Amino acid sequence: MKAAYLTEYAGPNGLTVGDLPQPGPGKDELLIRVDSAAMTPTEFSWFPTFKTRNGESRQFPIVLGHEFSGIVAGVDEGVSTLKIGDAVYGMNDWFVNGAQAEYCVAPQTAVTLKPAALDNAKAAVVPISALTAWQGLFDRCKLKAGERVLIHGGSGGVGVFAVQLAHWRKAHVIATGSAHNLSFVHELGANKVIDYKSTRFEEVARNIDVLFDCVGGETLERSWSVLNTSGRAVTIASSSETVSEQRARDAFFIVEPNRDQLDEVSQLLETGHLKAFVEAVFPLERIREAYSRAGQGGMRGKIVIQVTTGTTYA
């Protein structure tokens, strides 16, 4: 199969596009013929990218990209939820090769039918990002209607879903973003959008019940002061996982696959309560260019890698 992969510890410039052996489904797994795979630029710094669960080095070649849309091409005999030929979307295990390839494998618990309302590119950006927002806001922080939520990075891959879901939950949504994206984030459902370059958010955001941080670093450090006495916080910034400050480490979390939650997200996408946003689509052969674009920032949603030859998007 054709794939983009790393043969050594490297960044995007170390990616090669070539042929790799096609995988097969393991116990309770699906084989997916990948149409589109969403891109997460920070994956090069993640622990599971280069390490196994027990901390040993993973074997090369390594394929990135762990959320996808495509067609079920094979199933283990233990799979009962989906069948060959189903149009699906989902995510796969962080510690195995991902979806920037013509085929990938994924557990049936992490894959579900693709919403008919979405094309493959838009479907590919949903699973990790929407589930991260869902689990951070609802599972971890127990966001309630009427509460004040501050979302850092409201136009990014996860932020667009966090803003929409918080609005859907009838929270009062305050989000940060660049000047270019202020109106866009407001249209997503934010009650107030702060240009982080011209205004210090702590000067206008007060008495926050829930903090959802997609930025980390100094932005997270400055955010503790705006939380009220019962305020809750989550961060998905990978820098927070290894900092010495315990409250930042406690706030950090990584999304987990959840088919039931993804089905709920699908319903919201079908009814128009949620929208998915694709910044750009690049063919697999131009994957280095895609990562270069991601590094420029200012995106609305995510970049998608088109894997299946011949697929076109409007």
Assign the structural class, choosing from mainly alpha, mainly beta, alpha/beta, alpha+beta, or little secondary structure: alpha/beta
* Coarse shape: globular
Strand element count: 14
Poorly predicted parts: 310-314
Q: So how many helices?
A: 9
Mean pLDDT: 94
- Helix and strand element order: EEEHEEEEHHEHEHEEHEHHEHE
Roughly how many Å is the radius of gyration? 19 Å
In total, the number of domains comes to: 2
So what's the CATH class of the largest domain? Alpha Beta
The fold-level CATH name of the largest domain is Quinone Oxidoreductase, Chain A, domain 1
Q: What about the largest sheet? A: 7 strands, mixed
CATH architecture of the largest domain: Alpha-Beta Complex
Summarize the amount of helix as a percent range. 10-25%
Can you tell me the CATH superfamily of the largest domain? Medium-chain alcohol dehydrogenases, catalytic domain
Query: How much of the residues is beta strand, in percent?
Result: 25-35%
**Distance linking N and C termini:** 26 Å
